[in-house]
Amino acid sequence: MTPARAPRSHQSQQSSVDPDEVAKFAAMADAWWDPGGKFRPLHQLNPVRLRFIRDRVCAHLGRDPLEPRPLEGLRLLDVGCGGGLLCEPLTRLGARVTGIDAAGENIGIAGHHAAGAGLEIDYRHATAEDLARAGESFDVVVNMEVVEHVAAPGAFLETCASLVAPGGSSVIATLNRTPKSFLLAIVGAEYVLRWLPRGTHDWRKFLRPSELAAHLRGTGLEIEVMTGVDYNPLDTSWRLSRGLEVNYMVFAVKSKG
Prior knowledge:
Layout: H1 8-11, H2 19-26, H3 40-61, E1 75-79, H4 87-92, E2 96-101, H5 104-116, E3 122-125, H6 128-133, E4 138-144, H7 153-162, E5 164-175, H8 179-192, H9 209-216, E6 221-232, E7 237-241, E8 247-254
Parallel strand pairs: 1-2, 1-4, 2-3, 4-5
Antiparallel strand pairs: 5-8, 6-7, 6-8
């Protein structure tokens, strides 16, 4: 039997911030824009993540994804933006981007890099709960590889959903909790290949797709697409796939009513 969801008012009061996770990523802030450094996997993931966000948002809104600035005019929030690896290309696609992160060091790096690139991005040292309390809303809310690092994933996802405007959409990327993800994302990526510092992930905090879907139930978001993301070692690229055993992404929409 599926346990009953906690009342919305109780759940929304929970803090999603895990101080240990914030400190972990703050300590690596200087490495965000080094494509061969500690965040190399995210640099390699970026093209497939960007295409997924662009294509799904455009399909939802009836826009041409191949236009030079297909996200023109959309207000987009990147929750847990880190050093801004997604914020900058999304800005170039036309979106008016707000990037928030619980680590001030990350926001400092992101803002400095954006200024050097001549990009206007609204970076804030803040949490999703801060923006929800302020009553803000966005056309698109993305949280990519974030939910597996928070203290209360249900409360976090509910808060992020509350930030999506009616008719808007949300994009979520995370890792599945399977034996394969333990072997590839923990043992392989952190211990054998050393793509990531040891301890970057806690396999116990990975979310099965069914768990993520259960957390979204009742938030007003309806999942439209769920797709896997696989790594190709031959050309060090990532591609969308049918398999959800390790990395996967979700596109969900909120009704206009």
